[in-house]
Design goal:
It is a single chain. This protein is of the alpha/beta class. It has three domains: 30 residues; 192 residues, Rossmann fold (3-Layer(aba) Sandwich); 191 residues, 3-Layer(aba) Sandwich (Rossmann fold). The chain is 50% helix and 15% strand. It contains 20 helices and 14 strands. α3 packs across α10, α12 runs parallel beside α13 and α12 crosses α18. The chain is globular, with a radius of gyration of 23 Å. The protein starts with a helix and ends in a 5-residue tail after the last helix. The relative contact order is 0.10.
């Protein structure tokens, strides 16, 4: 009965969603590459999916791919002959997956939650186990997995405060969906409580930590830092404010802080990385209006240009955020001065950088607590406080280095979650799918 209701609502929503996304594809070209595969077309051949056991890992977008990479590596170590398929929902996530997760047997797009499409794709991949990262619950897909006998193990699970409110209000529905989940590994005790509150039996929930720690710590490398420094023309010792994952309404604040910094530090540089790279032209216009000097974008540099004294660089290319953090003297992480729930502050901390952020970090509460405990995370309420905190840090380079190193060590010390998640998947495979003789 619940599936009938869900599909009726899905059909009703399609009357509005299809025209909207169809218009965006026609006008901007966005989603054109992914729509076919999401409908079950152009999937990999049987040879690319050969192997046993058959493990399907799903990571929605860029952030989840970062966590998926070490999990896939750990699964490959345990099952060298496995077919490990990694799916994403977004085009940016797909690009990142192909770069960060070469250990996957195949990279595909997650199908739209249409029963016929789900059956087609599941029939091709034929997974023994489906492993979604975080809390990605699509009812038709999960229902069909259950009917096929495909076990479901959630890993790196988390439920944000905003999502929890929606799930709890419709608990009667999600309890039925969650009945198909064999085991769930979650990041924290808070996530465990929330998952239990919306219907998953508590004895199936395990607190195993955050696999993003493993992915970030493993990616830090002097070679990566040197490569991006050369690309952007940042010389050793140059002072740089990196503002990462900024949203509309935050760039103006950052630019005002930067303008004030230039009054006493005229050689200071700014690298702006908007959360949505298609906003590059909009951000460039904001920079021109702010009167802080010329700017150049990474896409211009990639097209053959080079930085010739421009104070500001806009990174409008997907997948470069983590690398660019290596260049920072100090970092501001966006999605936090506006109510967006924050962005991943650990990416900068992994490089030993002190991170400033606004009050809206609800989606990264554990990461914030970790960094604030060692002094590597600094919360500010507005641009005035951001300017003041950056000024204090720049005035004391030794303290800045000390706090940054403390943050780096805190990230490194929390490694190991990916292995624990892989062990959870392996246990389910051995006891419930493959039998004890695997």
């Amino acid at each position: 009965m619940w599936s009938v209701l869900y599909n009726a609502l899905l059909a009703a929503a399609a009357l509005f969603v299809v025209p909207y996304y169809g218009a965006r594809m026609a006008l901007t070209g966005k989603y054109r590459r992914s729509i076919g595969p999401k409908l079950g077309r152009g999937l990999p051949g049987a040879a690319a999916l050969a192997g046993s056991p058959r493990i399907w890992v799903h990571a929605v977008s860029v952030g989840e791919v970062t966590a998926a990479a070490p999990v896939v590596t750990a699964l490959r170590e345990r099952f060298p002959g496995a077919s490990i398929v990694l799916s994403t929902s977004t085009e940016t996530g797909q690009e990142m997956a192909q770069t960060l997760v070469p250990g996957a047997s195949a990279h595909i797009y997650y199908p739209l939650d249409i029963p016929a499409v789900c059956r087609r794709v599941l029939g091709l991949v034929n997974p023994d186990i489906f492993v979604p990262l975080e809390t990605e619950l699509w009812p038709n897909f999960i229902r069909i997995c259950r009917r096929r006998g495909t076990r479901i193990v959630m890993v790196n699970g988390r439920i944000s405060p905003r999502s929890f409110g929606r799930y709890r209000a419709t608990r009667f529905f999600w309890k039925r969906v969650l009945a198909a989940v064999a085991e769930a590994g979650v990041i924290s005790a808070v996530d465990a409580e929330r998952l239990a509150a919306i219907g998953l039996p508590a004895d199936r929930i395990h607190c195993l930590g955050n696999a993003k720690y493993d992915g970030l710590a493993a990616r830090v490398s002097p070679a990566i830092a040197g490569e991006i420094a050369e690309t952007l023309g940042i010389a050793p010792g140059e002072e740089v404010l990196v503002a990462g994952s900024t949203h509309a309404g935050e760039e103006e604040v950052v630019l005002e802080v930067y303008r004030r910094l230039l009054e006493t530090r005229p050689a200071f540089k700014l690298i702006l990385i908007p959360r949505h790279c298609e906003r590059g032209a909009e951000v460039a216009e904001l920079i021109r209006r702010a009167g802080v000097g010329d700017c150049i974008s990474l896409s211009e540099i990639r097209a053959g240009g080079c930085r010739r004294g421009e104070r500001v660089v806009i990174v409008d290319v997907i997948g470069e955020l983590f690398k660019v953090y290596s260049l920072a003297t100090v970092v501001f992480c966006g999605g936090s001065l506006v109510p967006k729930g924050g962005q991943n502050i650990l990416e900068a901390a992994a490089w030993g950088k002190v991170v400033c952020y606004g009050p809206h970090t609800e989606d990264f509460r554990d990461e914030r607590a970790l960094l604030e405990e060692v002094g590597a995370g600094i919360a500010v309420r507005d641009g005035g406080e951001l300017f003041g905190k950056i000024g204090e840090l720049l005035a004391n380079p030794a303290l800045l280095r000390q706090r940054g190193e403390a943050g780096r060590q805190a990230v490194a010390a929390n490694k190991g979650a990916a292995a624990r998640y892989a062990d959870l998947v392996a246990r389910v495979l051995r006891t419930k799918v493959m039998g004890s003789g695997l």
